Amino acid sequence: MSGHIRIRGARQHNLQNLDLDLRTGELTVVTGPSGSGKSSLVFDTLYAEGQRRYVETFSAYARQFLDRMDKPAVDRVEGVPPAIAIDQTNPVRSSRSTVGTMTELNDHLKLMMARAAQLFDQQTAQAVQHDTPHSIYAQMQQRVAALGQDPRMVVTFPVQLPANTTADEVTQWLSASGFTRVHAEREVATPTGPHKLLDVVADRFRLGNAEQARVMEAIELGLKRGSGRLHVYVQVADDDEQLWRFSTGLHCPESDLQYTDPVPSMFSFNSPVGACEVCRGFGRVIGVDFGLVIPNDKLTLRAGAIKTIQTPAWAECQDDLMRHAEKAGIPRDTPWNKLTAEQKNWVIEGSPQWNGKWNQQWYGVRRFFEYLESKSYKMHIRVLLSKYRSYTPCTTCGGARLKTESLLWRIGSVQDALAVMPLAQRFLPQGVAWTRDTLAQLPGLCLHDMMLMPIHRLRDFFEHLASDDSLSVQVKREQAALHVLMEEIRNRLRYLCDVGIGYLSLDRQSRTLSGGEVQRINLTTALGTSLVNTLFVLDEPSIGLHPRDMHRITQAMLRLRDAGNTLVVVEHDPAVMLAADRIVDMGPGPGERGGQVVFDGAPDQLKQVDTLTGVYLGARRQVG
Predict the structure, then answer these.
(1) Which of 497, 495, 521 is nearest to 508 (CA)?
(2) Looking at residues 119-127, what average pLDDT do you find?
(3) CA angle 210, 214, 217 (to 5 degrees)
């Protein structure tokens, strides 16, 4: 792209009726002493005019929702493209905004989880997938081969009948349906009461002797009449019969739990579909902070370790604690930090034999606060509660922000996960029947694991994820469709590492970031959007970077330039100045003595000029 941005008669702030031509498609650095007019030229004139013209292209209705910028004090600005400012301010105040949402990586990850992840049952931790008659037949062949024999098999389908159904009525129903034999019968409890469950025989055979067409017909019949459920009884020995359960859809036949098909919004804490129903996707709730209730863990129960009940108004509760602690054998003169976990739990949660009668057992500190909550219509109770409240991790989702079902989906292999995250650091979802040992045997990582790990380790994880062993059967079929998505994720992660913020995690809240970190995140976001013919205005992007990492930021800016964009950067760092195509030196001094262009040319030429910047850049004068 070739062209010029022409600024004529710029008088914003201390600019001295300045005229300047900037070539588009180049990296231009504007430097000079503090107060010499750099920001007035770049942000208050050039960016303000570009943004103002871009906003004016919208309708009057749309413009009322956008920030209007005043026209700068300038005669005219010609050839300015749409402008984007990447500065050091951090305007984010919402706790819903994270590094993942700022970089748009969360949007890519939820798409990938919906297409490429594998579901594991929350009770048995077994893989759950869509079964078809062909896949069921293949599983039956594999299991028979593992047994080392060709056992007799009975293919049945479950039928649910009322519990009071008589044997004659069962026989009549079978004959009317075209079946003659029931292999097993049992009663099951349902929300509407007990029901009789019959396993009706669809066919009997030995898999090695039966034709595939016959087996497939029995499987299809069983799935159709059993509403997607199929039970296969295998006679391994005379007194040993195994039951193999199969089902269609995302249903676990062992735990009888049904799961919904994955959609991208299921993996987003900003969507009601995926957000935890208790904390609404924030990961934290306002609750009782026991660190405030027990501020000094060196005190004993008798000396007042429980601060809340030490006032005269609640002295009766302290007496209850002393009386019941003596009966339960809880030490009353031992410092809180010396009590065992069981003894602390007794004090916090109350007596295990709690029967609802406050004067017979110790009710616990937690029930005491629940009682206060019931009286919160009184002003003094609300004041008391406010002293002991703070944000605590949500106990329903464990701080993961997502529903339990969303955390059952995992991606990758065992080797991929071990390479980037130790077993002890993996997230164990709340509400599952898994143990740490069970979690260690599951392949890959869940979405919250990816949110918690540093970006540089997440990048390593995705670099190895393209291998065939890391992808499920469904993903291999859709590998062509997922290729673009995986490449986009890798590129964005690589950009974040290239600009020196690979130590951040995607779950880090945006409002806790420094100005330099926000600016570099916005720079990588601009790289990921693949914009062209755009004016990028940057304010000291090297701030906060170690000199040895300065090449990372310059490479990112050169990438933007090579894509066909124009960059105008306010910068003082020599490494960035020397990497520029052109340098504009403002001066000669600050304030009223500034506002003029004292040099406009290539970096090598500036070294020979006797401006304040030139003498230092050319090493003719040194700091200190």
Answers:
(1) 521
(2) 92
(3) 150
